[in-house]
Amino acid sequence: MKLSDANLSNLPGRVAAPVYDRAALRPGIVHIGLGNFHRAHQAWYLHRLMQAGTAQDWAIVGAGVRPYDAGLRAKLMAQDCLTTLIELDPSGKSAEVVGAMIDYVPVEEGHGPLIARMADPAIRIVSLTVTEGGYYIDAATKGFAADHPDMVHDAAHPDTPRTAFGAMIAALKRRRASGAGPFTCQSCDNLQGNGGVLRQTLVSLARLSDPGLADWIEAECSFPNSMVDCIVPATGPNELALVREFGIEDTAPVTHENFRQWVIEDDFCAGRPDWDRAGATFSDRVHDFETMKIRILNGGHQVIADPGEVMSVATIAAAMAHPLIHGLFRKVESEEIVPHVAPVPGYSAAAYLDLIDTRFANPEIADTTRRVAFDGSSRHPGFIVPSIRDGLAKGAPVEGLALVSATWARYCLGIREDGSTVEPNDPHWEMLTGVAAAAKERPEAWLGMRQFYGDLGEQAAFAKPFAKWLRMIYADGMEQTLHAYLNG
Predict the structure, then answer these.
(1) Where in the sequence is the signal peptide annotated (predicted)?
(2) Which class for 436: exposed (0-12), middle (13-18), buried (19 or more C-beta within 10 A)?
(3) Which CATH architecture has domain 287-487?
């Protein structure tokens, strides 16, 4: 059955379909970066509200700012912006069709259609999932990267920008002039203080071309922090085959685990849906939830993905089933990450670790170590280095975290232990492979990348075990090194 509005009433009986009138939905949100995660997470929460007869004026308009986004737009528009979500529960798979998205803005150079749509007074929230590394943050200072070519371009051409942030600023300029007022700018990426990071990027970029507009954005727009959580694998041949097993022809289905969490700061300048009625949590403790998730889950992903890739272990579930990699995960988390994480309502750090252990081990989730290892140059500084700094500040062990950093250095050599080549898997891959090759003889070369490690290369309590582990990995192999750590 081809997925479309016309066929919703004819879907197979075991597939849940929207019960609301999609023709009556009205847009309220533009979401930029419409990948699998957004459709399985934020769009799902809104869909649940619509199923309950509310939020009919908060429908999503999708958007993208890169040329490759046009391909996804074509697929989704051909099926009326519907998505089949398949939940991969070990006790049994289930499927539902989500209809909270009603349009996808044409992807054009200069982003004229996107700017016009965001300038529409009906749009009250502009949300983003553009990856952790997509916010133009200077790696060394954590400030705004004003000298990045994209930012230089958008500052010089504010009416025909290259980036999502330039387009948002252009739309806000129109809204200020028309009296439409501000919209809420909502980051949904895995960044500590993601709302604050988005504010920094948007206001700083606006200030380069229009200081008065920058002041207005800073004063009138809101930038709520949030923590998002759901494991959502990439879609490939297996997922396309799986949706056909449910009797649906969907060219862009999404699989996901049987867990979701969304914690949001309640700071919306132009209204919001009642996402809490669908299970989201509004809290003034978002930072604590973020820290727990980023350190234990996202950090844990990096702990297992890099050695998994080096050892040719293809999936996260398979890595968790490998006794040495799972042993590394449990020991590093329990001894060097969890002790520095405060509890949040509903979870102690230790209980959250047990939850993550179960989620990562879900055999139905074909999440690849390659996907999780992607963009280590953003993820290690964001997810691993803070735990290293906490450990050093408290005089606590960092031996395991030093080993984790060494596995990243070994991974970035670009050759697995079986001799196969690691295809480029980081925006800075060429630079990383060059430094990794140098670090094979001089481990200190890796920690010399101050944009990622700051002064950690000068702190013997971390630098010495890092060098020891990296030399051992090259001399004895990853398995023997993991044995040595676990038995040490």
Answers:
(1) none
(2) buried
(3) Orthogonal Bundle (1.10)
